[in-house]
Amino acid sequence: MAIRFQHVLLMNNACLLLACLLGASGSLASTQKDKPVSGSASSIDNEYFEIGFNTGILNLQDFSSEFTVGANVSFKATEDFFLQFNYLRTDVGLSSFEKDSPVGRYFEGDDRTYSHYDLLVGYNLLQGEFFFREGEANLSTLYLVAGVGDTEFGGEANFTYTLGAGYEVSFARRFVMRFDYRNFIYTSNLIVEEDGSTRNGLLSVGLGYLF
Amino acid sequence: MRQNKLFILFFVLVSSMSLAKDKAILRLQVIDPYADVHSGPGRGYPVLHAIEEGEYIDVLTRRPGWYEVRTQNGRVGWVTAAKISRTIQVSGEPADLPDVSFGDYLKNTWRVGYSAGVFSSGELDGSDLWSAFVGYRATSWLGVEAEYGKAYREDVRGDYYGVNVLVEPISKWRLSPYLLLGLGNIKIDSQPGFVPLPLNSSSDYQNYAIGTNFYLGRNFLIKLEYRSYIVSTDTDDAGLGSWRLGFNTFF
Known about the structure:
The complex is a heterodimer.
Chain A: H1 2-22, H2 26-34, E1 37-38, E2 45-46, E3 49-59, E4 65-76, E5 81-91, H3 96-100, E6 113-133, E7 136-153, E8 156-170, E9 175-187, E10 197-210
Antiparallel strand pairs in A: 3-4, 3-10, 4-5, 5-6, 6-7, 7-8, 8-9, 9-10
Chain B: H1 2-20, E1 25-30, E2 34-38, E3 47-52, E4 56-63, E5 66-71, E6 76-80, E7 87-89, E8 109-121, E9 128-137, E10 142-152, E11 156-167, E12 175-190, E13 201-217, E14 220-232, E15 237-250
Antiparallel strand pairs in B: 1-4, 1-7, 2-3, 4-5, 5-6, 8-9, 8-15, 9-10, 10-11, 11-12, 12-13, 13-14, 14-15
């Protein structure tokens, strides 16, 4: 295999040389000489931030499953770690208690809007390449996230733990597609549970832009 | 529909901004005997080819710990920042690439991070808290930061914002202690159905903290901190204490 690569490389070099000699590849040769060469590292384009949005289905414990729209900003700290801010909101339907109860809705208006944001640290567990087509490698990673945040629903504001996993694949130089599962865990007094904790699951698909 | 349009507009704006950055390309000469060129910015991506001593490379893009380079024969790939640390510019001077210049690398950096923890004493004892901040470090040992955070308990919730000065005298150590001093304002509210606390509405506070940073990577750290607050209420001053664990990154 290595010999074959060398052969290809040599062939490339030979072709290049020939092309240069013939003057056919004049543009390539001139870029090597004429392009202004900056002396500073500030001319390097950084790709550290990613903004994105996602849509998904949020399963609310004791309430309905809702379609959500969210936005996120990520900062790539190292090859392995990133920090991420997420925001999502949705209007919530009736709980099973409310459907059967003669009293009707427990709360009204803005209180029926579920809004959540969190600050997460992510770890790229499995980095690799994904092939949509033969010969077209796209960078991909399977990652884990954990963090804390805020959930506001039913007039309450609750400290929330977020745990999740996701898969990211780039389909263009700066665009990525994400598939995520997130679990939001908090203590709520809206509907009293035996162990006191509420868990909401979010499955989402998102699009991100790296800059 | 209108939201969708806004998103599209935003993306177009951002894309055009990045296209507008038509800067001159940094060209360097490799003085390492050999460097692997990977297909992607991570150690798991396959090595496609190699660059050799004396070869010229154009540095195109920077991602954490990696540089995207183009070799003389037009091949593009990723090299670790550590590998091309010892390269020289066309002019013959050593290149001072970010990520690889040693010493004063914390200077002039922007920082972002967050922490989570719990109030361990005072009126808010037992409340969970989180805070997020943006900071700027003018020298390697001194920085300022603006923070915003919230606290939660079954019966109360609060939100606070403040400005802090951070002193980290020996930042070259991997485990590096720091001191923090600051001012802020905290607003406490009761959760629905609970009686308000005496420490109600909005109050100014001073806080000071002692903590330690542990550098997990060159620009990523985990921190542990104890913070003490003096909150000015209408009648007297109340004390609060909190423990927190957090992550910071800088660029």
